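It would be a great kindness if you could assist me with a short task in structural biology. The full record is reproduced below for your convenience:
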Amino acid sequence: MGLGTFKGGIHPYDGKELSKDKPIREVLPKGDMVYPLSQHIGAPAKPVVAVGDTVLKGQKIAEAGGFVSAPIYASASGKVKAIEPRRVVVGDMVTSIVIENDGEFKSVEFKETKDVASLSKEEIIDKIKEAGIVGMGGAGFPTHVKLSPKEPEKIEYIIANCAECEPYLTSDYRRMLEEPEKLIGGLKIVLQLFPNAKAYLGIEDNKPDCIQKLTEMVKDEPKVEVCPLKTKYPQGSERQLIYAISKRAINASMLPADAGCIVNNVDTLVAIYNAVKLGKPLMHRIVTITGQAVKDPANFSVCIGTNFAELAEMAGGFKEQPKKIISGGPMMGFAMFGLDIPTTKTTSALLCLTEDEVAKYQPSACINCARCVEVCPSRIVPSRLADYSENYQENMFEKWNGLECIECGSCSFICPAKRQLAQAIKSMKKTVLANKRKK
C-alpha cells in the first residue's frame, strides 16, 4: 500500500534533530501559576475560586462557561493571588487566575476506573468534559463537543493525528515512543463511542520507529490500524490528514463528522486516557523547547500555567540571544515579544531562533510564477487572494474561495518574491468572518 498523502505541500527544514532523541523530562515550576480563562474555542471558563482561597493540585478553579467551553484545573497547590487580565501568546489581555505556587504540589485524590469497557457512552463523555480536555494540537476545540456529533452511528474513521508535520516539534514523537500504551488506550476509549468506526494512527514515514512500535502494539486489535503517511508539510492539517487516510474531502463549511471522521491529536488522546481511566483532569502537557538559540533543546512534561521564561531556564537558557521567539512551530506558531506569558492547554513548543529569516527579506512584486498555487493544499490561488486582501475587496476574496485557506503558510514559504501571502489572507479571513457574524 502506498503512503497516504494529499496534493500540494512543501518540505521545509524540519529541525527535529535538535530534540527528537531527548526523552521527556518531568519538571516542576517555581514561580506563580497563571491560568487564562480562555484556553479553548468557545465561551471563557468562569472562576469558582476567589482571591485568598487555598487550592490543591487537581482542584477545579474555573467551570465551563457554556456547552462549547471547558473547565480549568490547578496544576500546582497554593493561594489564589489575583484574578486579573494577563497577556497571552496572541498578544491579548485575558482574564486569568493567578496562583502563588507554594512549591509543595499537594494534590486532591484521583479515582481510577478499573473496567473502562463497562462505562456507558454518556459516562465517558462526562468524564472527558469534566476533565477540561480540549484539542491539544493547537485549535483548542473542547473534546467532549467533538465526540458528540449529531449522528454518531455515521462515524467510520477515528483518526489519531500522529503526523507532527510542524518543523522543530518532537513532543508527539516522544510521547509515541515513551507512552504508546496511553495513546492506544485513549484511542480505544474513543472507539467505544462509535460502534461503526475503525481507528487509524496516521504517522509520517520519517518516524519509522514509531510506526514499528505502534504496529506491533495493535497487531491483535482488529479495529485499530497504523497508516504510514508521506512526510510533507502540512500533512497533520485536519483536512489533509482526513483525505490522506480516508480519501474523503471536506471544505470550510463542513466538520470532519460530516465526512464520517473524528480526528484527535496524540496529546489529546493521552489526556482522554488519563481522564477516563486514571480520573485525572488536564493539568500537564508535553512541550518541546528548542531552536538554535537554546542551550539544551529537549521535551518537557510541563504544568499548564507555567511561565514561558521558566521553560527557557529548564532547557539551560540561551547560548546566544534569540532574534525570534515563537510559541509553537515556525509555520503556524505565534511570534512573541517576550517570555512573561503563561503556557496553556494548547502550548506545544517554545522555539527560539538565532536568525529572523522573515525580517531579512523585503517583499517585492509578484512575478506570476504560480508556485503558491502549486503548493497550496486547499487548491486556491494565494497570490490573487492576497491582492484582494490588500485592496479590501471582501466580495472578490469570498468569490475566489478565500475562506478555504487553512493558514498553513506554505504559500509564504515558497514565494520567491517573499510576499507575506498567508498573513494577508489570514487577516482578510478574520474580517470576512467577523462581518458575517454581525449580519
Q: What stands out?
A: The chain has a mean pLDDT of 95. Residues 327 and 333 are 5 Å apart (CA to CA).
